[in-house]
Amino acid sequence: MPHVITQSCCSDGSCVYACPVNCIHPTPDEPGFATAEMLYIDPVACVDCGACVSACPVGAISHDSKLTPEQLPFVELNAAFYPEPDGNLPPTSKLAPVIEAPVVYPRAGGPLTVAIVGSGPAAMYAADELLTQKDVRVNVFERLPTPYGLVRAGVAPDHQSTKRVTKLFDRIAAQPGFTFYLNVDVGSDVTHDELLEHHHAVLYAVGAPNDRRLDIAGMGLPGTGTATEFVAWYNAHPDGHPDFDSLAINLGHERVVIVGNGNVALDVARILTTPPDVLARTDISDHALAVLRESKVIEVVIAARRGPKDSAFTLPELIGLTSTCEVVLSPADHELVALDLEAAEDPLTRNKLEVLSKLGDTSTPPTRPRIRLAYRLTPKRVVGDARTEAIECTVTDTDEVHRLDAGLVLTSIGYRGKPIRGLPFDGSKAVVPNDGGRVVDPRSAEPVPGSYVAGWIKRGPTGFIGTNKSCAAQTVHNLVADYNDGRLRDPRYKPGALDRLVRSRRPDMVDSAGWKAIDAAEVARGGDDRPRVKFTAVADMLTAAADGGPPRFGRRLLAGLRR
Q1: How large a percentage of the chain has pLDDT more than 70?
Q2: What is the pLDDT confidence band of residue 83, given thresholds at 50, 70 and 90?
Q3: Which residues of 410-433 are buried (b: 16+ CB within 10 A; e: fewer)?
Q4: CA-CA distance, 464 to 155, in Å (whole number)?
Q5: Distance, first Cα to last Cα, the chain
Q6: At what angle do helices 347-357 and 315-324 cross, to 10 degrees?
Q7: Taking CA 311 as the corner, what is the angle to CA 306 and CA 316, rounded to the nearest 5 degrees?
Q8: CB-count burial class (<10 Å; 0-12, 13-18, 19+) for 124
Q9: Which of 115, 123, 127 is nearest to 422 (CA)?
Q10: Which residues pair with 447 in a beta bridge?
Q11: Contacts of 54 by beta carbon, 8 Å cutoff, 6+ apart
Q12: How large is the average pLDDT for residues 248-265?
């Protein structure tokens, strides 16, 4: 009996290399890996060894005899990825080709030293790739007192299995040669040029933190915002929009409209319709939970400009949504699904449309808060005087206007990177121009010495948590090649000088011991019923960091000894 990959797949790829018969695809070296919605186990080729189960960092792989009822659709989904047994199955006689770790050629002047700016998945995977070699030092800089980026602040609180990848990141951070510089803002506390004086290279993995904005009349009224801001609010992110606190979120109306239908839109809709008692067992912020307990919302409309076959959400997320929430379509949208299904040729698209075709109808009265997927609606304007009252949309490619009454309108139409001080920036693509992770000056088409990128700031906001692993590996391979070829200048200062510089500029810098203290304090606040209760204010994080671990003088001494 085969194993099955389920909804929480992060596309890390570790399972691919653990499989002794190469039955998990697409592999990181195959063309479809970067765009695949998840990875898939071939049920015919699987030999039931279980090696993939322990390799998966998010616990997404189960034996097909141990699946929950909600996970059963993934049996067919895994099988649908593969052709019928006709001799064209993927090879099953050898391990998948493993990308070799970059070999660092030692120098007499000291170890290869790299600064990584950002601490999310791309940053941590890059650090891991670098630290496969001896005598490499990695210093990770993060402007918040807590690491791990969107894994901590973006993954929905009811998706705790996905957050298990932080255990992998904890192991990376515990490796010799790894140092955290948290609560340090590169660009103001320390500059790019200063980092280059203390390192051979600086690698930016800062993501795409800005929302794409919807430019229609009425956006900006109280009761409008972005899904990213809403996620920050319920995930207790200290950068939660200062004007988007619990008083500004109006859940006293019966309907919320989300413009855009990617996975983040599904996350927000699911949180808005999940019983608060269920959310109370997660790490959702207390202020969000209190507002959700008083919510009057009975319908969340997820509005998309295009039709069902072009839905931006992934099939795994749709399956997960329909297994926990009531999801419906209007009769007109059911007709659109039927038309798309009749014309669909791609099997995965057909699977998505098959799930949509089985959804309930809006004519059935809701028995609990529900989600409605709405198609071919192009936003025209938000209506309201003192605050949001409705959103008007045209039926796409027509002049017909639909009005959706709503007390809250959120947009979820994508993300954009923002410029990094000291580096070139492509404003149209919202990325740092690069060649395989090497930052490139567009005026000269030459690499910018010692400067690299990985993750969304490199390739744009595409892929999943684990997609950053292969992305970071490519960048690190090029960085190491440049180092080995003598193209990276040696640091100007000795290692201890960096710590003195950063602490002189940022006395409340948080190191690894401080982060462990914050982590332990949050877990303790969660008690027996919740995984943790996060701090929502930076000041509280800094207090927890100072209260745990050795005194700061002792930490500086330990840091000097490690170096």
Answers
A1: 93
A2: confident
A3: bbbbbbbbeebebbbbeeeebbbb
A4: 11
A5: 51
A6: 20
A7: 175
A8: buried
A9: 115
A10: 440
A11: 18
A12: 93
Q: Is the peptide bond before 26 cis (omega within 30 degrees of 0)?
A: yes
Alpha helices by DSSP H, listed for 274-398, are: 276-279, 286-293, 315-324, 331-343, 347-357
Model confidence at 93: pLDDT above 80? no
> Residue 98: its pLDDT value, please?
65
Residue 548: its pLDDT value, please?
74
Query: How far from the centroid of its chain's Cα atoms is residue 523's Cα?
Result: 22
In terms of C-beta density within 10 A (0-12 exposed, 13-18 middle, 19 or more buried), how is residue 77 classed?
A: buried
CB 406 within 8 A of CB 224: no
**Looking at the predicted structure, is the pLDDT value of residue 239 above 80?**
no
- Please give the full DSSP string across 371-431, using - where no structure is assigned: EEEE-SEEEEEEE-SSS--EEEEEETTS--EEEEE-SEEEE---EE----TTS--BTTTTB
Q: From CA 6, how far away is CA 317, in angstroms rounded?
A: 10
Cβ contact 145:515 at 8 Å = yes
Look over the chain and give the mean of its residue pLDDT values, rounded to a whole number: 91
- The region that residue 58 occupies, defined by phi over 0 for left and psi between -120 and 50 for alpha, beta otherwise, is alpha
Q: Which amino acid is at 232?
A: A
pLDDT at 84: 65
Task: Please compute Rg for the chain using Cα positions.
Answer: 24
Q: What is the pLDDT of residues 291-319, one digit of tens each?
A: 999 999 999 999 999 999 999 999 999 99
Reported residue count of the chain is 563
